[in-house]
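User: Round two. Same drill as before: sequence, then structure, for each protein.

Assistant: Same drill it is. First protein:
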Amino acid sequence: MERTIAVEAGLTPVREILKRKGYQVVDLNSGVVVDAAVISGMDENVMDMQDMQIDAPVINASGITPEAVLREVENKMMH
């Protein structure tokens, strides 16, 4: 089963690595039900994220490599 991950705009390397690993990647504000979300952690109020509710694990990509984000996503998917 293909997992869907929402990724904040501007995290292109994260998008690319997730796609290469077979995940479906959508925009954070797509309205699609997702299995996890990746945010930049830079400014959570950009795009009014404080009003968004995501019933899935949220991974903060700030200061970590795309590979580390992938590991976090995979760890969250197993629990």
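Second protein:
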Amino acid sequence: MNNRGLYLVRENYDANILEHTAWFWESTVSEDGIAVLGVTQPLSNHKRCFFFEIPEYKELSSRIERFVNNPEINAIVVLLDSPGGAASGLFECADAIWAMHEEKPIYACVNGGMACSAAYLIAASTGHIYATETSEIGSCGVMCTAEDDTGYWEKQGIRFKTFFSKHAKRKNLSPFSEEGGKALQKSLDQTEDFYFTRLGTYRGMDKDECISGFGGGEVFFSGEALERGMIDKIATLDELLSEIRSAIADEDTNPDYVNPLISSSLEEEGDGGLSMEKKNLSDEQSRLLSELKSNPTLLASLMQDAVAGERKRVSELNAVRSECTAAIIDKALSEGSGLSDIAPDLVAAYKAENEKLAARVKELEAKVSAFDPIKKQAENSQEVKVPAGMAQEGGKSAVEEGRNAALTAFGVGRKEAR
């Protein structure tokens, strides 16, 4: 923790420089449509550059999105050499990249550098990780540092006293107090849970598998990282680019071409692939999988249908989102449920909301009806035709009649002046 920020960086790396290093984006696009985007600095959510701030994580996902939407780009390589970075903004960036990785091939390549902590999660979100033999992978987890400079300022004759409002006693707790230390540890553990949950999804593994197998914060060279399932292949950037160009050539000449990311995930014994043995498929599932592997055209069609179906599901759910159904919709999105699955819950939510509104309307109607006697008395008093401010002999003016009617309606007695 530096200025109360959480970081996912490689151990022994000074987190303080994260706030002072400007990040200049560098990308190239080859003639055959391969975009290479360099990510070669510590990562942060926002970073000041000269007189403006760069939303780094957002900029990273936005640049990849532009490449994905560009029909002239055939594949994207994220060239990583980063020790990690800030937790703020990381998970949103990784989720955005993961959502795009099936639309167009995206690869992470560590070409002799490092992909650690936050940078490793970014690499995993691309769906495919290549690294050279001497690249450093891992440092999975969250860290923070805290500084206590009160002794220094006291020596300077300066004392600080912080005041809090009456309902904010737990605000900005000191990490050096017992309560503050527990609160900070809770935040670290929750952030780590976000990290490993996503890492398990991106690597096609159980979350606990990642926690136990990825070293508890240790850094590995690529050989051991490959054995642990942390990367997919040991290769240089040039070797990766050659593979991509071969795949592009296959796509141009073979109408049954399948995205290499999809086909590699169907390999039974491929490095980092989703094998039948690991997934414990039934005989029927294995048979269907074999048929799909032998019929890439059908597989590509099914993948397109699946993507279209998922987009339709999300669109239908969000179309009925309202204040009273938001929690139901969010749960359905996370669990993969469709609109028909949650219809009874939606009906119940709308019914409860209508009952609340009906009760509110009845309450307002009761308040309005309380004014009916006043209205009637006022209408009757208008029939007393007398000059303004003048009273009839033995009677009262219209103004006086209306005022007395209002007092009577509210049960307020008034003594007559004698």
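The chain has 16 helices and 13 strands.

User: Perfect.
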